[in-house]
Amino acid sequence: MQIKIKADAYASGNNPQYTKWIEDNRGKWVEVETDHLFNNQYNTDTARIYDTQIDAVRDDARVNMGKCSYCGTMMHQKELICLKHAECPEHGVNWFTPENTFFLKYPNGLSVPTKEVTQKIGTYFLSKSLIDEHYELRNCRKRMLFKFDGRMFYVRDGIGYKRMRFLDVPQAVEKKVREKLGELMSR
Ligand SMILES: [Zn+2]
Asked: What confidence tens digit (pLDDT) does each residue in 105-156 have?
């Protein structure tokens, strides 16, 4: 399993070794350690990497895999339930799915049309974010960054994308946002 580090991937924190690793690997494919898998982050030989730092995933090891909700043991779908502890079966398994794992749904990411958009909607202002490939919706109290696939919103939550049917704004505003973005995508 490999991930492609964004050409302009940010290096958060102040660990020099981590920063150097990011700098050295920008724009490159790197190997992911698959012993422990997550919905929105990846262990590499040196660094923990988040969805918001990568462009794409290949040979995703999360296909047909999940994690025991009680003890976190990695599970394959043919195993059905974890039997490591007495408590495991009742807690079930959290399977990786395209619904809960952004890059399973979009292995090559989800790009945003290059056309500019600037639109006032109620008290909100919709625009294309200067931060890589996102739309931005903001007013004086709230600001959100997201992607949109014509149906669902993928709201950036700091390290990854949260799949949402509805944006956390008044319904009338969201309706206008959908209309505007739908128009952009169809053109
Ligand atoms: Zn377990």
From this structure: 999 999 887 777 888 999 999 998 876 688 999 999 999 999 999 999 999 9
Check residue 132 and give its pLDDT.
67
Are residues 144 and 72 part of one domain? no
CA distances from 106 to 58, 176, 179 (A): 11, 25, 23
Look at the chain and count its residues.
187
Q: Find the 63 Cα to ligand 1 centroid distance in Å.
A: 19
Residues 71, 29, single domain; the answer is yes
Q: Which domain holds residue 79?
A: 2-97
CA of 96 to the centre of ligand 1 (A): 16
What's the chain's average pLDDT? 93
Measure 10 CA to ligand 1 centroid, in angstroms: 35
Distance 90 CA to ligand 1 centre (A): 10
Pairing of strands 54-58, 74-76: unpaired
> Can you spell out the DSSP letters for 145-184?
EEEE-SS-EEEE-SSSEEEESS-SS-HHHHHHHHHHHHHH
- Cα–ligand 1 centroid distance for 83 (angstroms): 6
Q: How far is the CA of 69 from the centre of ligand 1 (A)?
A: 7
Distance 104 CA to ligand 1 centre (A): 23
